[in-house]
C-alpha cells in the first residue's frame, strides 16, 4: 500500500462493556479521518500502557468514562497517510510517533506527534508518547534538581525506564526498586537498583546513606506508607498510580502537559532508550494487556497491527 493511501475500513480493537481482557474484540470498523489539527497514521506499533487495561476494567470509569463500543489505546507510531486541516510541519510519508485515540488499530488519529528520533526504531518510538511526558512531568512536580536523590518504586517498566534516564540526565541520583531479575537492567540505565519487599528501608539507606529527597510511586501495592517513612515528608512523595496517596498527604500526578517539550528533552539525551520487551499482534491485544498488568517488565509492551 502506498504511503498516502487511506483505507475505507480497517481492523481495530474495541470493547462493549467493562471487564477482563476477554472483553476486547478484533473488529472491522470504518477507518478514521483526521480533524483540524490532527494527522492520520498507518500504525506500525501501538504502545500498551497500564491506563489501557485500567480503562477496560472499569477502574477509571469515574475519571475517564467511555461510550461503547469503545476503541483502545493512546500511543502509537507509524507513517503519516493524511493531514487534518491546518496541519503544517509534517508530510504524508513521514515516520512519526505520538499520542491520539484508539491506537490499537491498523490506522489511528494522532493529536500530538513528533518525528521518530534519529537512531530510534519506529517500533520503539511507539512507547515514547505518554511515558516520556509522564516522566518529565512528575520530576518537575517533585521539584528535584541536580545533586539530589530520588527513590523510584517500580522503576523497570516503561514509565520507570523513562524517569530514570530523564533524572540521570538532569544530574539527579536515582535509587530504583525492581524485581531481582531486573536489577542489572536498572543499573544499565544509571540507577542504583534495590529489590522491593520487606526490608526496603534498610536497603535504600545502604544505597543512599545521605537519604533521599523525594520518592516516586509508579507501582507496588501497599508501599506508599513505607515510601513516606523513608523520605520523611509525605509532600515529597508522588504517586502516578494510587489516588489514595492524597489521604496520606502525598501528591498525585498532575494532568498531562507539553508532550513535545518532554519528547525533545528525551531526544536530546545521547543514549535515551525505551526498549521493547514484548511484542503482540492486534489479535493478541488481550494477552498484551494481561502481560502489562502482571508487572515485572523491563521496558515496553507493544502491539504490531
Q: Overview of this structure, please?
A:
With 305 residues, this protein is α/β, with parallel strands linked by helices. The chain folds into two domains: 9-127 and 274-304, Medium-chain alcohol dehydrogenases, catalytic domain (Quinone Oxidoreductase, Chain A, domain 1, Alpha-Beta Complex); 132-252, 3-Layer(aba) Sandwich (Rossmann fold). It has nine helices and 15 strands. Strands 3, 5, 6, 7, 14 and 15 form a six-stranded mixed sheet that branches. The longest helix is centred in the middle third of the chain and has 15 residues, at 128-142. The radius of gyration is 19 Å and the shape is globular. The mean pLDDT is 94. Residues 19-303 form the Enoyl reductase (ER) domain. GO terms for molecular function: oxidoreductase activity. InterPro entries: ADH-like_C, ADH-like_N, ER, GroES-like_sf, NAD(P)-bd_dom_sf, Zinc-ADH_QOR/CCCR.
